[in-house]
Design goal:
- The structure is a single chain.
- The protein is of the alpha/beta class.
- The chain has two domains: 2-210, Rossmann fold (3-Layer(aba) Sandwich), CATH 3.40.50; 218-336, CobW-like, C-terminal domain (Hypothetical Protein Yjia, Chain: A,domain 2, 2-Layer Sandwich).
- The protein contains twelve helices and 13 strands.
- The strands form two sheets. The chain has a seven-stranded parallel beta sheet, with helices on both faces. The protein has a six-stranded antiparallel beta sheet with strand order 8-9-13-10-11-12, sandwiched between helices.
- The longest helix has 15 residues, at 258-272.
- It starts with a helix and ends in a 5-residue tail after the last helix.
- The structure holds guanosine-5'-triphosphate.
- The site of guanosine-5'-triphosphate has 17 residues, from α2.
- Keywords: Chaperone, Hydrolase, Nucleotide-binding.
- GO terms for molecular function: hydrolase activity; nucleotide binding.
- It catalyses: GTP + H2O = GDP + phosphate + H(+).
C-alpha cells in the first residue's frame, strides 16, 4: 500500500516511464564488479542506478565501482535473495519516489545469491512491475574455478541455470580443453542462455542491456516456436542434466484446460516451488485464440496473454522447466492431467 501511495505521484511525473533492470549474478570473485565498471565506462550517456548487495556488514563492492556520478545504493549485512529481500522492495520504492534520475537499474547480487529470488520481485509485484521491467539476468562465470564449484556450491549452479546471458570470464586463464568442458557442463545446466567468453568482462554491452529476456517474443524464440515461415528457430532438447539440476522440455499437441492448468501450477509451485528455478512456456488453451505465456521464477506462476495463433502454425504447447531433481515422468503425468477433455 505504501508503495502505491508513494509511487502514483512518481508515475504521473514520469509519464509511465518503465525503467529496465539488469541483474548481475555469478559466483564469488567471478568478475561482477569488474564487468559493472566496464558497463559504466562503455555507456557514458546512460544514467545508471546501481544496487550493490554484499553479504558482510561492510559493503566493499560499492567502493570498487569506478568513480562516477551514478546513484549507488548499498544493501549490506545479508543476502538480497533472502534476508534483505524486503529491503530491496523498500529501496526500489525509495528509488522511484526520491530525487533520483536514471535510465537503467543494475543490481549486483552477492556471489552466493540465488538470482531467481531477486528476479521474482520484478515478476510478481504488480506495483514494482508498473515502474520497473526486468530486462535480463547476466551471469559471470569464472573460467578458473567454475569446474571446481559446480556440483559443490549449489548457488553457482543456480546462477548459471537461471541466467539469460552468460559471460565466461577470465578466459585467458583457461586452456582450450577446459573451455570446452566448461561449455559442455554449463550448457547442460542451461541450454537457453546466450553466451560469450571474455577477459575482465570486456564484451560489447549495448545488446546486453537490452536483452528483453522476459518479453513474449524472446520467450517464443527460446522455446523454438516456429516462426511465420514455419521454421523451427531453436531445437529444444527434451532433457539435460548437470548434477541434480535438470532442464526438462515438453512439446504437446493437445490443448490444455485453463482452469486445470492454473490450478496445477499454483498447487505444484506452492508445495514444491523451491525445486523450480525457472519455468517458461507458450501454452495452447482450448477455445482461446491467443497463446498463453507462462513465466515463473521462485515458485510464482505468472500467466499473460501472448500473440494470436497464426492460421498456418501448429498450436503446440512448449514448456521448459529448470530446477533441482525434476522428474520428467511426474511432470509429464501432471501436465497430461491438465489436457482439455
Ligand atoms: N585474471 C583475471 N582476473 C580478473 C578478470 N576479471 C576480473 N578479475 C579479477 O578478479 C578479482 C575479482 O573480481 P570482481 O570483479 O571483484 O569479482 P566479483 O564477482 O565482483 O567478486 P565478489 O563481489 O567478491 O563476488 C579482481 O581482482 C579482478 O581484478 C579476468 O578476466 N582475468
Amino acid at each position: 500500500m505504501k508503495f502505491v501511495i508513494e509511487v502514483i505521484p512518481y508515475l504521473c511525473r514520469m509519464a509511465l516511464k518503465i525503467t529496465p533492470v539488469t541483474i548481475l549474478t555469478g559466483f564469488l570473485g567471478a568478475g561482477k564488479t569488474t564487468f559493472l565498471n566496464h558497463i559504466i565506462k562503455e555507456n557514458p550517456d546512460t544514467k545508471f542506478a546501481i544496487i550493490e548487495n554484499e553479504f558482510g556488514q561492510i559493503n566493499i563492492d560499492s567502493s570498487l565501482v569506478i568513480n562516477t556520478d551514478e546513484n549507488i545504493f548499498e544493501l549490506s549485512n545479508g543476502c538480497i535473495c533472502c534476508s534483505v529481500n524486503g529491503e530491496l522492495s523498500d529501496l526500489l520504492n525509495k528509488l522511484v519516489t526520491g530525487p533520483y534520475e536514471f535510465d537503467h537499474l543494475i543490481i549486483e547480487t552477492t556471489g552466493i545469491a540465488d538470482p531467481s529470488a531477486v528476479a521474482a520481485v520484478f515478476m510478481t509485484d504488480y506495483n514494482i512491475q508498473s515502474v520497473f521491467k526486468l530486462d535480463g539476468v547476466i551471469c559471470l562465470v569464472d573460467c578458473v574455478n567454475v569446474l571446481d564449484v559446480l556440483g559443490v556450491e549449489e548457488e553457482a549452479s543456480q546462477q548459471i541455470a537461471f541466467a539469460d546471458y552468460i559471460i565466461y570470464n577470465k578466459k585467458d586463464e583457461a586452456d582450450k580443453d577446459k573451455i570446452e568442458e566448461i561449455k559442455q557442463k554449463t550448457t547442460a545446466l542451461n541450454p537457453f542462455a546466450d553466451f560469450e567468453f571474455a577477459n575482465y568482462g570486456k564484451v560489447e554491452t549495448k545488446k546486453l542491456l537490452s536483452l528483453n529476456a522476459y518479453d513474449k517474443a524472446t520467450v517464443r524464440f527460446k522455446l523454438g516456436v516456429p516462426n511465420s515461415k514455419g521454421k523451427e528457430v531453436v531445437k529444444i532438447a527434451s532433457e539435460s542434466h548437470h548434477h541434480d539440476i535438470v532442464s526438462q522440455s515438453f512439446v504437446f499437441e493437445q490443448s490444455f484446460d485453463l482452469m486445470k492448468l492454473r490450478h496445477y501450477f499454483t498447487v505444484m509451485l506452492m508445495i514444491q516451488g523451491a525445486y523450480f528455478y525457472r519455468i517458461k512456456g507458450i501454452i495452447n488453451i482450448e477455445g482461446i485464440n491467443r497463446q498463453l505465456i507462462l513465466q515463473s521464477v521462485k515458485g510464482s506462476p505468472v500467466f499473460t496473454d501472448g500473440d494470436a495463433w497464426e492460421n498456418d502454425t501448429k498450436r503446440e504447447t512448449r514448456l521448459v522447466f529448470i530446477g533441482k531433481n525434476l522428474r520428467r515422468d511426474i511432470l509429464e503425468k501432471g501436465l497430461r492431467q491438465c489436457f482439455y477433455a
